[in-house]
C-alpha cells in the first residue's frame, strides 16, 4: 500500500449497494498513477450489501491503495472527519458514493493545486444524471437540490454565497488544521435530510478571505434516483436546509444573524419575481416549485 500518495479521495457511504461498486470502478480507472492515489472508503453503518461490495473490490484489486473503514458514529460529518483522520495525502478530495469521476479527475486536482499555491479549497463540476426524465418543475435555480454545479468553462473563485458542493470538493490538509473539522451537529444522519456541513466549513474560510476556486475540469457524474425527485423528498430536503441554517446561526453574532435575515428577504423577493416570470412563460410547474421550496425552507428554519 502506498505510504505517501499525492491525493486521498474519501468516499463516505451509507446503504449504497446499487452504485458503490461503479463508483469504485471509476476511481480505479483514472489517468493518475496508482502510486499517487489512495481511496479511503468510510462506511457509516451500512445495513445492505455495501460492506461486501467494498471488501470484494479491494481484494480483487490488491495493486490499488483502496482502504475500507467503518465509522460507527452516525452522520455524514462524522464520516468525513474520519476520512480526514484516515487519509495520508496533503490533498484530500471528497465525492459521494453515487458519483462517478471522469478519467482525469485526480490528475486535474493535483495539477490545479500545484499551479495555484494560494488556493485552499476547490469545487469541481457536477453533472446530474437522472435515472428517469428530468422533472418539469426543475429550473436552474433548483439544480443545487440535485447537487449539480456548473459555473462555466474557466476556473473562477467562489464569491458571495457560492460554495463547493459536497459531491465533488477537495481541500489542502492544512485547512483542517487551521479552520477545524466538519461540524458534527450538521450534515446527513442516516436517512435524514439535514445538510449544511460543508457550507458551514466553507463560511469559516470565507470569513478569513481564504481562496476557494471552482475548477471545471475536475468532473463527476452524479446519479439522481427517482426518489430524490418526489415532492416528499424535496420538501424534506428544503426543511433540512432550513434546520441546518438555524443550527449554523445558533452561534453566529447578532450582525451575522441580521445579515442572514436580510439575505433571506432578498431570496423571497427574488422567488416571487421568478414565479411571475415563469407564469408569463407558461412554465407554471417551475414557478410553483420555487415558491414551495422557499416556504419549506422557512418551515425548517422556524421549526
Please outline what is shown here.
This protein is α/β, with parallel strands linked by helices. It has helices spanning 20-28, 50-60, 76-86, 105-115, 174-179, 197-207, 231-249, 254-280, 284-302, and strands at residues 7-13, 37-43, 66-70, 91-96, 99-101, 119-130, 156-157, 168-172, 211-224. It has two domains: 7-226, Spore Coat Polysaccharide Biosynthesis Protein SpsA, Chain A; 233-302, no CATH class.
What characteristics describe this protein?
Spore Coat Polysaccharide Biosynthesis Protein SpsA, Chain A, 9 helices, 41% helix, 303 residues, 9 strands, 2 domains, 9-stranded mixed β-sheet, alpha/beta, single chain
Q: Provide the structure class.
A: alpha/beta
The level of helicity is 40-55%
Q: In whole angstroms, how far apart are the ends?
A: 48 Å
CATH superfamily of the largest domain: Spore Coat Polysaccharide Biosynthesis Protein SpsA, Chain A
Instruction: Tell me the number of structural domains.
Output: 2
Quaternary organization: single chain
Poorly predicted sequence stretches spanning 5 or more consecutive residues: none
Q: DSSP strand (E) fraction?
A: 15-25%
Number of helices: 9
What's the average pLDDT? Answer: 91
Q: What's the SSE pattern?
A: EHEHEHEEHEEEHHEHHH
And the CATH topology of the largest domain? Spore Coat Polysaccharide Biosynthesis Protein SpsA, Chain A
CATH structural architecture of the largest domain: Alpha-Beta Complex
Rg over C-alpha atoms, rounded to the nearest angstrom? 19 Å
How many beta-strand elements? 9
Amino acid at each position: 500500500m502506498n505510504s505517501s500518495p499525492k491525493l486521498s479521495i474519501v468516499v463516505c457511504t451509507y446503504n449504497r449497494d446499487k452504485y458503490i461498486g461503479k463508483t469504485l470502478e471509476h476511481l480505479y480507472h483514472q489517468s493518475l498513477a496508482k502510486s499517487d492515489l489512495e481511496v479511503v472508503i468510510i462506511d457509516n453503518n451500512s445495513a445492505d450489501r455495501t460492506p461486501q461490495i467494498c471488501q470484494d473490490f479491494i481484494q480483487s484489486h490488491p495493486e490499488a491503495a483502496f482502504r475500507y473503514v467503518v465509522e460507527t458514529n452516525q452522520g455524514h460529518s462524522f464520516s468525513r472527519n474520519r476520512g480526514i483522520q484516515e487519509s495520508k495525502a496533503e490533498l484530500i478530495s471528497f465525492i459521494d458514493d453515487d458519483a462517478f469521476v471522469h478519467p482525469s479527475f485526480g490528475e486535474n486536482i493535483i495539477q490545479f493545486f500545484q499551479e495555484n499555491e494560494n488556493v485552499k479549497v476547490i469545487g469541481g463540476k457536477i453533472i446530474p444524471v437522472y435515472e428517469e426524465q428530468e422533472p418539469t418543475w426543475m429550473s436552474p435555480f433548483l439544480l443545487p437540490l440535485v447537487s449539480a454545479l456548473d459555473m462555466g468553462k474557466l476556473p473562477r473563485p467562489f464569491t458571495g454565497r457560492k460554495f463547493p458542493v459536497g459531491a465533488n470538493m477537495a481541500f489542502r490538509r492544512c485547512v483542517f488544521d487551521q479552520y477545524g473539522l466538519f461540524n458534527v451537529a450538521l450534515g446527513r444522519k442516516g436517512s435524514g435530510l439535514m445538510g449544511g456541513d460543508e457550507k458551514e466549513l466553507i463560511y469559516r474560510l470565507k470569513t478569513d478571505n481564504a481562496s476557494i476556486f471552482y475548477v471545471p475540469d475536475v468532473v463527476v457524474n452524479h446519479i439522481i434516483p427517482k426518489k430524490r425527485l418526489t415532492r416528499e423528498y424535496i420538501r424534506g430536503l428544503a426543511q433540512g436546509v432550513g434546520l441546518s441554517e438555524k443550527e449554523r446561526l445558533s452561534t453566529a453574532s447578532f450582525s451575522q444573524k441580521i445579515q442572514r435575515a436580510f439575505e433571506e428577504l432578498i431570496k423571497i423577493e427574488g422567488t416571487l419575481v421568478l414565479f411571475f416570470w415563469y407564469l408569463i412563460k407558461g412554465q407554471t410547474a417551475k414557478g410553483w416549485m420555487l415558491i414551495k421550496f422557499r416556504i419549506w425552507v422557512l418551515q425548517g428554519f422556524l421549526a
